[in-house]
């Protein structure tokens, strides 16, 4: 037996030729299995073909749903606008016709976020159908408002469509549990409608309250459950082909987006937060309209909500209480959502690197690999992982900087992201291939593959102990791959076919996971996932890499063939071609170029300065120009009360406007808006007030140091109000255009 080294006396090729179970045919079979399961995982994330008007009354029809919501999504509906009033009137009539009792709640919602706070005047619509023998309350929720200049057919018109068609399909009969349709105002400006409802109104709902919240960050894609609270793991199986990953819930706190579900969960409600994320380039833009919303996505969303509604409306909700404290790690498998106790996930995460290490020791005894070689393999793969992630992120950053006109202004996504997604994955292959060739100059194939798996499983072990939810989706297939690696290593050489079967079976979960997760990341968008695509692919492949080794002894020598450095050249050229092709394809899209435009107007002198992102000739021509505006400014009165108390009275001039109050050094404290306190114990540096109507006055009381400078900006969303305005052509889409009129005063 050779000694434990990466440099045995026997030539590598001679050893490899005697290794049954490590033949090129077996390697090709494993590759085909991986590709087939990867493709199956990606294909599993399709949507449902839309049903037409002729569909049976009891099923969800995307065509009927689109027709029901069509009058609402014809125009933008910013909070405080006549358009949102018209939308709520239409929705109230629709729900009243379905046998619901309608109630309108007008009030002021307040939300504090560190040193910033938002308040907003809105009108929530609550439609109720009492249950026959209620054990709790089921709430179907979404919001009626959209951002300015966006019709919001997806955000959140898709939720309105789904809810209207769901209650129609349920029929006029009362369900066992109370059913509430909650349509909120002011979500886009800080979840203000939800805050107002939870502050006043939610106490009337019979507990436990279960909410299905509907959201959108794009116009297409597979609807997914992004977050859950309470014992919803006991319910999720009632949905057709459900998709839920615990890690999306864990990741949500790191993302810049938020939904009303945060308010519901903080208020003690159970439920699920659902969303679509595909084609997020249209998010918060004029292209978020009925023509762009994918009907298959609407159908799938509706099927999901209808199935969950039928279950929850008839279920004994109180009986779920004993399972409220359960918090299994959940991930999606071919047969449904898998639920695993967090302790088991953490245990598997810790066992996986031990299994790989055991496989290293087995092969060390056979002279195929040394501990030093495996350590070098782990270090080499760390370089691959870091290089690919940084390369993917850097590749997109350079592409976006070179062609900013192809990016959306909300998410920085291109209209057509597919080729850029492929470019990142191919770029990762370039890094992996180059470093593989260099590593093979120092270590054996077994050392490189086992070292890669050892590194990945160690990283996942740390993640599994820190947060089983965050790592669950990758830990389970990695643990199976690690177990398969060890079993294939200990089987005798004569069991070549058995070992091959073990490796095939152990590879299946990795292939499925990679297909589903890469598809989901690609749907999320290249700007949001740059680097994550490469990292996910390499982590999955790295954990399963030793499955490519046979059970019999393999070559232990390094392979010093520097000419193999030519291998990455082809994928490098392909990467460049994909970037160039993706850019050309996107620029050829018929969709307009998105621009942000703001007119900064001095409320006293009328002096106006235009600021435009400048992605088009129109934008570059208008950016930086100056003019004079004959705009009425909001009235501003400041009165000092006792001590450090100050009263600020502002009267708005325009509908659907917003006020931003920014104090000088020292900030505000003890803030109240029209008598509603704002949690400002740490002090506020910015206070925004949304949903103001023309002529509406608001009274703000604060504590502030004498002599502080206060800046008040009234924002209207019509740039044509300002002097110097030049309308763009049809090829430009304005993203929430703003006219900001500013005033200053001493406190």
Automatic annotation (TrEMBL):
Keywords: Aminopeptidase, Hydrolase, Membrane, Protease, Transmembrane, Transmembrane helix. Pfam families: Peptidase_M28. GO terms for molecular function: aminopeptidase activity; metalloexopeptidase activity. The chain crosses the membrane at residues 343-362, 374-399, 419-439, 446-466, 472-491, 498-518, 530-553, 565-588. It comes from the Bacteria. GO terms for biological process: proteolysis. Signal peptide: none annotated. InterPro entries: M28_fam, Peptidase_M28. Residues 124-308 form the Peptidase M28 domain. PANTHER family: METALLOPEPTIDASE M28 FAMILY MEMBER, PEPTIDASE M28 DOMAIN-CONTAINING PROTEIN. This is Predicted aminopeptidase.
